[in-house]
Amino acid sequence: MGRGDLTDAQWERLAPLLPPTGGRGGRWVDHRRVINGICHRVRTGVPWRDLPPEFGEWITVYKRFRRWSADGTWERLLQVVRAQADAAGDIDWRVSVDSTIQRAHQHAAGAPHRPPPAPPERGDGAGTNQDNPSWRELVALLEEVARQAKH
């Protein structure tokens, strides 16, 4: 297990919440290996094609990330993990507000926010390297749970 990979305790909490493997096209690469690859990419900012080989084929990691972004899997995971942490009292919901003003960029004025479309199964589809903010929030929450588990 590398630095930043899911621990056994984290995996045991997360595994039952994931979609079943298999289905279309037969066997899937292990979810844990793919999620560790996605976490590595989000943490380091490395391009998909430059993922280290221990996470498997980059295209497999990329397609799983895109598919789960499009079908709402990441949103469901975040809701369940957040609810579990809240029930355990691990989330402090106090809000701190200050009067700092930040100007928004001119392009931030009301653009519609939609989840990315599902990736094409075959053929030449135009891919993107967009990050999913929900995924970043899930990774941050998982890292916080891991830090608290060490104490």
From TrEMBL:
Disordered: region residues: 102-135
Domain of life: Bacteria
Pfam families in UniProt: DUF4096 (PF13340)
Limits of the Insertion element IS402-like domain: 6-77
Designated name of the protein: IS5 family transposase
Taxon lineage: Bacteria, Bacillati, Actinomycetota, Actinomycetes, Streptosporangiales
